[in-house]
Amino acid sequence: MKVLEISQRPEVVKNVEYVARYLRSGLERIQQQYPDFFVGIRQLGVVMGLEFNHPEGAKYVMSSLYKHGVWAIYSMLDTRVLQFKPGLLCDKAYCDELLEKCEAGIKEAAQLVKFARY
Fold first, then answer.
1. Residue 103 and residue 111: Cα distance in Å, rounded?
2. Average pLDDT estimate for 10-30
């Protein structure tokens, strides 16, 4: 009950809206750097699906992100999609660090899939 109460506080709702917009903007910038690999962002608040063009692209990104300290998991229904779920209580500094790690992980994965066979 406490988690539900906290997640409905006006300041938490406002922060979630900010974090969702801020991360979306940062991810769109990363996507512009790798448009042939990172092809889409699905989003509902801070719950996101990052879509890649390789049939198993999310597996590569998941592994690369893990090496950079970011936990995310590929979708069992579509291995092109990475389930990306940052927390409700993130602040700007955390988002900046997360985006830096995402950029590094996606860059690494994009390079790996160039050598992977479909």
1. 12
2. 96
Burial of 71 (C-beta count, 10 Å sphere; 0-12/13-18/19+): exposed
- C-alpha 14/C-alpha 21 separation (Å) is 11
pLDDT for 59-78, tens place per residue? 999 999 999 999 999 999 99
CB under 8 Å, gap of 24 or more: what pairs does 27-34 form? 27/99, 27/102, 30/99, 30/102, 30/103, 30/106, 33/103, 33/107, 34/106, 34/107, 34/110
- Whether this prediction's pTM lies above 0.85 is answered by yes
* Phi, psi dihedrals of residue 56, rounded to the nearest 5°: -125, 30
How many Cβ atoms sit within 10 Å of the Cβ of residue 80? 21
pLDDT at 73: 95
How many whole angstroms separate alpha carbon 57 and alpha carbon 79? 7
Confidence check: pLDDT of 58 > 70: yes
Question: How far apart are alpha carbons 51 and 31 in whole angstroms?
Answer: 10
